[in-house]
Write a structure and sequence with these properties.
- The protein has 210 residues and is an all-alpha fold.
- The protein has 10 helices and no strands.
- It has helices at 2-9, 11-45, 50-62, 65-72, 76-79, 82-107, 111-119, 124-155, 167-176, 179-206.
- Helix 2 packs antiparallel against helix 8 and helix 8 (124-155) packs antiparallel against helix 10.
- The model has no long low-confidence stretch (mean pLDDT 88).
């Protein structure tokens, strides 16, 4: 296919944009995990916070990505750097599956196991780190897998604000009405999403409690 010939001829550019794409996704997912997992743990132990946290995360998911970029663009520190703005937006979109799955994973631990841990004299923090989190880890990873795949797709739109990534080729191809250039950005992005889904999915299955 002509598109693969185009990718080979412009492999340095495609590789550079792929690295930019991975950087945006990696940083935003890391921040989302650092925020989302603790929030999921908090609402699992304090159910009264469940509704406000999950509703807020759900509302963010309903905002179209370009609209969210537009809302954040006037913010002085963020608007000065497109990559900062893109990372924040991707982080916000990634929060819901991570928070929700952390909550479901923690709440899904067998109460008898928790009570057995208490009977052995474990403190609340020991129960969390030695019992609940290990048993909930596969469910949490499932949420992270969804967040990564979502972020890889949304990161292509970040090129609209100059944040780089494979979306640059897609938008350039749309402007030129050139299918080869569009696919040169879309195919690597799809491959990244599939690879992330398969890789994290395998890790999730390995860590699933027997």
């Amino acid at each position: 296919m002509n598109v693969f010939r185009f990718i080979l001829q412009n492999h340095e550019q495609v590789l550079g944009l792929t690295i930019e794409h991975l950087w945006l996704v990696g940083i935003s997912t890391l921040i989302a995990v650092l925020l989302g997992v603790p929030l999921g743990i908090v609402i699992a132990h304090w159910p009264r916070l469940n509704k406000p946290v999950l509703v807020s995360a759900n509302i963010i998911q309903t905002i179209p990505s370009l609209a969210l970029f537009g809302f954040l663009l006037p913010v002085p520190w963020l608007g000065a750097r497109a990559d900062r703005l893109a990372i924040l937006a991707l982080t916000l979109y990634a929060l819901l599956p991570i928070i929700r799955n952390t909550y479901v994973g923690i709440r899904g631990v067998d109460p008898a196991v928790v009570e057995a841990g208490r009977g052995m004299g474990l403190t609340d923090s020991q129960l969390l780190f030695q019992v609940q989190l290990p048993l909930a880890l596969s469910v949490i990873l499932s949420g992270i897998r969804v967040a990564v795949v979502i972020s890889i797709g949304l990161a292509t739109i970040a090129a609209a604000i100059g944040a780089g990534g494979l979306g640059e080729l897609i938008f350039r191809g749309l402007a030129m009405v050139d299918d080869q250039v569009i696919l040169a950005g879309a195919i690597p992005a799809a491959v990244l999403a599939l690879a992330a889904d398969i890789g994290v999915g395998q890790l999730e299955r390995r860590l699933r409690p027997q």
